[in-house]
Write the structure tokens for this entry.
Amino acid sequence: MKILDLKYKTLIFLISILGMSSCSSTKKVVIENENRSFDLTTNRGIPRTAFTGWWVYGEGHHIFKDEETLEEYDLIFPEENMEELVKLYLAVCEMEYFPMECEMTGYIFYIDKVPVLQVSNFEILYIQGCGE
């Protein structure tokens, strides 16, 4: 009976260690073509950069075209209400697919080789074609 009890205790101990080690593992992501790992649950150590360019929204998809490199990024706004963000875009631009010049602050990472800009802050600079 003691041997059976010891086996169960050992099995429970190993399962608990395995569970704890899987909970504390960090997720890795490639940022700006650098093979550096960051903790995505806290966003610690991730360099934020300001990008100037054009924000375009259409058919439920947000993209950003960088003015300097002309590279396009999918946009993610984790700290914003997406319904309110779409309302803001449409209130300012009055239609989909109308470029709005913005400064986006955030960082770039890749999902299945698709560049994504995660935005922590943004500022509308100019609305294309309005002259104001």
Remarks:
- Residues 2-23 form the longest helix (22 residues).
- The radius of gyration is 22 Å.
- The chain is about 25% helix and 35% strand.
